[in-house]
Amino acid sequence: MIDDERLERARELAARLPDGFVLGTATSAFQIEGAVREGGRGESVWDAFTRVPGAIAGGANADVATDHYHRYADDVALLADLGADSYRFSLSWTRLQPEGRGGLAEEGAAFYDRLLDGLLAAGIQPFATLFHWDTPTALRGGWLDRDTASRFADLAYAVGERFGDRIPTWATLNEPATVTLEGYALGVHAPGATRLFGALPTAHHQLLGHGLATQALRASAPGTRVGLVNVHTPVSPASDSEADSAFAELFDVLHNRIFADPVLLGRYPDAPEGFEALLGALAVDPADLATIAQPIDFLGLNYYMPSRIAAGSGSASTPDGDAEAMRSLPFHLAPWPEYPTSGFGWPIAPEMLGTALDELAERYGEALPPLVITESGVSLPDRVRRLDDGSVEVPDDRRIDYVDAHLRAALDAVADETRPASSIDLRGFHVWSLLDNFEWAAGYTQRFGLVHVDFTTLERTTKRSFEWFREVCRSR
Fold first, then answer.
1. pLDDT of residue 281 exceeding 90
2. What is the 3-state secondary structure (H, E, C) of the chain?
3. Mean pLDDT of all residues in the chain?
């Protein structure tokens, strides 16, 4: 049961939300669907990566995950009970195009037909992400190959034709920064490549895919909203030293600006002094930049934590696990001892979400479209507790406080006329995640959900945070 103080804060927070502000939750196909060998689904790089010894905590895989493919109706019922306006989910590329090309596989498309019809019947707005990391293995080279951008545009056109009458909002890519840095540079995520700065072509090819997919969706699903989702982290040097400051500036470019500047400003950022050779791969054809800079209807911001950068190789630790390739870099992620941490060890710093909004407003000004916070959430070691009366609950008050603090930080930043963020048109907030799920390289060791999932029985149990967020959703 939620204590009275938190209930009152939920109602007070709900009263602060402007008219039309969208509240929702988010998931991704690979993390929840399971059924990896049903309906003709093809193999993705993440299916292959889970078979690499030591790649996933506990040797886990997503063959079943939360079994959303078979239990989607139950999960839609949870969303309806929550009172969410919006459900952000992703379409599985390999379920729709098993080989990454060609027409849509009918069984896969029929699954999303059922999901969409269920969401609309429940009064929930579908918010679809086209790519949430599940590149088909049949596309040899993945995002290192420029042709993957064209194949992605073909997918976009096909799904726009099939689902555009029911999906009002589309995100082309989810976190291209994470795909490039964790998947192709450091090898912590699929496909497990360790190319370091040689991974930069994947940034350009993803952004080109975004531009081409935006054009395709506008052609096949006219009138729908199209945007891009990326993770933005405020970056600070670990000290006042010149070296720490220089590498912090480099990391900001690599993590944030490479993925936003071309879309919003039509150009790649200048390399920090001394690092020009490292970013030479991003000197590209102006025609590509014109495609990438297609006007978008919104920018999606995923926020979890700030980053502190120190010179030197440091340890192999990254937010997503150990990466030996980190030892080859001239900088590393330094700890934030002043902040509490999540189950992942990530610093919990809600005020830095306001900083992220300020940075976006300062950098992009009038070029910044309306903004939606598309993910924010926290992993905690949640457990089901059986009460004396035989009922069960999952007490996760820290998650309540996390979501409360982050949503307030965003609202405070855009409401404060003395801050750059006051110029932002903030349209919504999505909690990651609806369900506990397969958490990439961490397997099933981290729980982000508003709903607890028993990964043996697959039973769903709503947490206190679900009840609290329901109070926010329904008190508006």
1. no
2. CCCHHHHHHHHHHHHHCCCCCEEEEECCHHHHCCCCCCCCCCCEHHHHHCCCCCCCHHHCCCCCCCCHHHHHHHHHHHHHHHCCCEEEEECCHHHHCCCCCCCCCHHHHHHHHHHHHHHHHCCCEEEEEEECCCCECCCCCHHHCCHHHHHHHHHHHHHHHHHCCCCCEEEEEECHHHHHHHHHHCCCCCCCCCCHHHHHHHHHHHHHHHHHHHHHHHHHCCCCEEEEEEECCCEEECCCCHHHHHHHHHHHHHHHHHHHHHHHHCCCCCCCCCCCCCCHHHCCCHHHHHHHCCCCCEEEEECCCCEEEEECCCCCEECCEECHHHHHCCEEEECCCCCCECCCCCECCCHHHHHHHHHHHHHHHHHCCCEEEEEECCCECCCCEECCCCCEECCCHHHHHHHHHHHHHHHHHHHCCCCHHHHCCEEEEEEECCECCCCHHHCCCCECCCEEECCCCCCEEECHHHHHHHHHHHCC
3. 96
